[in-house]
Amino acid sequence: MNPFAYHRASDARSAIALAGPAAGAKYLGGGTNLVDLMRETIERPSTLVDVSGLSKNIEARADGSVLIGAAASNSAVALHPAIRERFPVLARAILAGASGQIRNMATVGGNILQRTRCHYFYDQSTRCNKREPGSGCDAVEGFHRMHAVLGTSPSCIATHPSDMCVALAALDALVHLSGPQGDRVLPLAELHRLPGDTPQIEHVLSPGELIVAVEVPALAFGARSAYRKVRDRASYAFALVSVAAALDVEQGRIQAVRIALGGVAHKPWRAHQAEAALQGAVADEAAFLAAANAELADAVGLRDNAFKIELARRTMVAVLGQLAKEAA
Ligand SMILES: Cc1cc2nc3c(=O)[nH]c(=O)nc-3n(C[C@H](O)[C@H](O)[C@H](O)COP(=O)(O)OP(=O)(O)OC[C@H]3O[C@@H](n4cnc5c(N)ncnc54)[C@H](O)[C@@H]3O)c2cc1C
Ligand code: SF4
To answer: Does the keyword Signal apply (predicted)?
Structure first.
């Protein structure tokens, strides 16, 4: 591990001042991803600003929304009664990730900005455009069973590993940011980037920008939501494919629907095409299949991960079918 300075911030303003606008500093949440990457010298921050003591507050507002402090642990969010009642998809997504111990340590801010689990990114003896821009991508010809099928580029086929973010994308969550240039609010769906030819740039945050809170807006049918994660082991495994969905059905017709996919792209993938195909449709398997086909029409599989396209199709149909059945 490289030497670094360590500061513990007492509030958001002091955290931003301690980090400064230069790129050398990093915020430290629970450290469950960043510290691993520092041990491997893949991340080499000159300064760590510990923000794990900032707001952990989870505020269930009267209008049905919930505001979550970025330092709240993943466990605290998943177990909060308002989250379980208003947005079960979010509680289930978090509980589908990592282990109890890691969820106790991991923060909401850190979960959003966790980095890919591509094996080559962690292995310094291989070529990786994300770790070393311009060096190449050994995953394209190599072991890529876990990799992306949507929104990929020749430069990078990595996936975003978070389960929580898939649910937040489906719920139209807003990320509250504070930084050297001031405060702003950004839809979570616009925070992460597709790889293009700069896969090392994973999000749109400026140097020194801090995630202060995440807001989950009220959703009248949020209680009718579900998360399904398909993986190689029943626990402690990243998603091959996951689906977060919420469905509002009246008299057999779809009034509103939200769908996001995980394990398939460099960012949580909001399924806008499937949603558009389902608006006003009869809530049956044929409609769910047509919607899944519309969303996956541009998916591109490689030698080892092409199975994910069919897996995503079937998982979407199954989750939407389950929600429609519950609504009947
Ligand atoms: C064995 C193992 C299995 C796992 N399995 C899963 C899984 O199945 N599903 C899943 O979703 N996740 C899984 N994870 C990942 C886990 O969810 C993340 O490691 C965790 O959420 C990161 O949160 P953290 O607070 O520890 O982040 P940190 O490691 O502290 O930070 C991660 C990144 O976020 C930045 N950061 C932290 N807080 C802020 C902030 N407030 N503002 C701006 N930047 C910030 C840091 O600078 C760093 O770049 C697993 C991890 C491990 C080790
Ligand atoms: S897929 Fe992306 S992260 Fe993985 S080796 Fe290629 S460039 Fe690196």
So the answer is: no
Q: Whose CA is nearest to atom 28 of ligand 1?
A: 31
Ligand 2 centroid distance, CA of 189 (Å): 22
227 ligand 1 Cβ < 6 A: no
**Ligand in closest contact with the CA of 176:** 1
**Ligand 2 atom at minimum distance from 137 CA:** 6
In short, whether 162's Cβ falls inside 6 Å of ligand 1 is yes
Residues shown for the chain: 328
Q: Is 32 in the pocket of ligand 1 (CB under 6 A)?
A: yes
Summarize pLDDT for 123-164 with one digit per residue, the tens. Answer: 999 999 999 999 999 999 999 999 999 999 999 999 999 999
For ligand 2, say whether the CB of 157 is within 6 Å of any of its atoms: yes
The residue-averaged pLDDT of 106-127 equals 98
Give all domains of the chain, ordered by start, each with its CATH number. 5-52 (3.30.43.10), 225-327 (3.30.390.50)
Ligand 2 pocket member 138 (CB < 6 A): yes
Which of 23-27, 261-265, 315-319 has the lowest average pLDDT? 23-27
Phi, psi of 168 (to 5 degrees): -65, -35
CA-CA distance, 146 to 150, in Å (whole number)?
13
Alpha-carbon span 90 to 60, nearest angstrom:
14
In this prediction, residues 161-186 reach a mean pLDDT of: 98
The token duo for 114 is 């966790």
Q: Is 22 a residue whose pLDDT tops 90?
A: no
First CA to last CA distance, the chain: 56
Q: What is the signed CA dihedral for 111, 105, 181, 22, rounded to 10 degrees?
A: -100
Structure tokens at 130: 């994300």
The answer to whether residues 262 and 160 touch, using CB atoms and an 8 Å cutoff, is yes
Average pLDDT for 42-52:
97
| C-alpha to C-alpha distance for 122 and 146, rounded to whole angstroms | 14
CA 267 to centroid of ligand 1, rounded, Å: 15
Give the chain's mean pLDDT: 97
Instruction: Quote the CA–CA distance of 283 and 248 in Å, as a whole number.
Output: 10
